[in-house]
Specification:
Length: 101
Amino acid sequence: MYAVSNLLISVAKILDVLLSLYLWVVIIRALLSWVNPDPYNPIVRFLYKITEPVFALVRRWFPWTAMGGIDFAPMIIMLGIFFIQSFVVQTLIRFAYNLAR
């Protein structure tokens, strides 16, 4: 059972790191929307490529997110990431610790 417990803890920690990295990508993308970046810049294209599918999904589920010229999709995504980090990741870690007992 210790191997399964350690595997679950490792998966939870990797998920936590990946979610934190994606959170920073979303923040950078939101900050870039305030300025007019060069759309041909490879970094800008990469940021748009990895965030736009999630942004489009949020905009489709919540059509009110683009009201008045302000896009609330990044805020909803950030709240979703915080929820997943505080609920799913922590639940996996606690389950793994209880499994090891």
